[in-house]
Amino acid sequence: MTYNALVQTLFAQRERAGRLAASASVVSGESGAMAQGMHVRFWLESEEGRIRRARFEAYACPHLMAAAAYLAAWAEGRTPEELLAWEWRPLADSLQAPIEKWGKFLILEDALREAARKIGKPGRCGS
Amino acid sequence: MRTASLYFDYAATTPIDPRVAQRMCECLGADGAHGNPSSMSHAPGREARALVEQARAQVAGVIGAPPASIIWTSGATESNNLALFGVARFHRDRGRHLVSVRTEHKAVLDPLKQLEREGFAVTYLKPDTTGIVAPEQMEQALRPDTILVSLMHANNEIGVIQDIAAVGRLCREKGVFFHVDAAQSAGKLAIDVAAMQVDLMSLTAHKVYGPKGIGALYVRRQPPVGLAPLIFGGGQEQGVRSGTLATHQIVGMGLAYELAALEREGETQRIAALRDRLWKGLSVLGVELNGHPAQRMAGILNVTFPGVEGESLQFALRELAVSAGAACSSGTDEASYVLRALGRSDAQAQSSLRFSLGRFTTEAEVDAAIAIAHREIPALQALAPR
Asked: A5-118 belongs to which CATH class?
């Protein structure tokens, strides 16, 4: 498997890797499972209707690791609505992900949307 | 992009020993052995023939066989094909059942699948969780119509060593031909085909610091094993394997085997010590050993890295030339069928790597590999959701 320069750069970027401490302003969303070969979780902290900080955890291939790192950075400063409207295909193309991995981008999308939907809802912390 | 510079893939292939390369170059030079070894009517042909026969004796000596029992081939894959198809087709009137193991190399499993398509029945034994096949399993699998058992000496992915002598004894008692794929073990383990009661043994040069593209099949001479040829032509190699003999390749294999035998004991101890050093360094990362902890080759260490996805594992350790599964099938994303046969899950099998060490591996290289693993693996493990 070969990886383009963007994948290599994002794979090495781990400043947004990890968790956010539980609080009333923090939500999480996850999708996949290790047994499926991919498991991803996003942590979002919101403030006045925008994402203040985003973090990710991932058990995934380099393309999806890179995609999760990209998405965590991209999410900061955006509204939950923008996150819900995110579409995976342009990112998959930029990363030159092979077609057999496209389904994994849907797992990524599911995790991001689950977290975005929880913003502003009661009982969301750490869920 | 950082590229692999630390070579830990000796089980896939070895670099050619400089002494072997020099001897081969001498064969290829202006004063080299350019005659056809089958042209016995002139001096260049006879000179080439003498070199071929010297190499035949060198290879035969490593496995305790008479030189005339060595048939030159293009490598272990061809040797396995010749052994399996050759025996099955020659003896098809005696029986149509063969026995092998799920963890064999594809160069054995794929010919067996083809034989199944040709009407033969094959029993594939499942090893225990360490990769060992008990001789009792083999005994239970034998049937009145069994004509051949094929069992690899040392597994290419996990390095586990099978009890060849016990299975050989059993096969001889039952009148069943016994083929051994010794691609990984010849020149590295003590082998005596007569004592082990082996009828056919596949050998290759490129796992023992010889050239690629040359191998051999040992075929017992007394009493003879009937073998149907796969390649027809000039009738070389007792009519079993036609084709002009590649003198320089054969000379390279001969010297490679002779050197391997001469240096085996010291080399095995040195490589085992390096392997143990590598294992000690990796084990603190929570890795799991695949294969039998003691009954295994000195140079092969197969480990699972729990909590690290397989492709990311390989990418993170791309400075190391290591294998995920066999080199011959690692171009696919499928989990190793060998590790799956040992009971590992798909995820565990995909999160496993084979480190294989050899003659030119140094302590500094092992320490560098440990340092790279310590830099990358904890970070990836910490990234996995819990």
From this structure: alpha beta
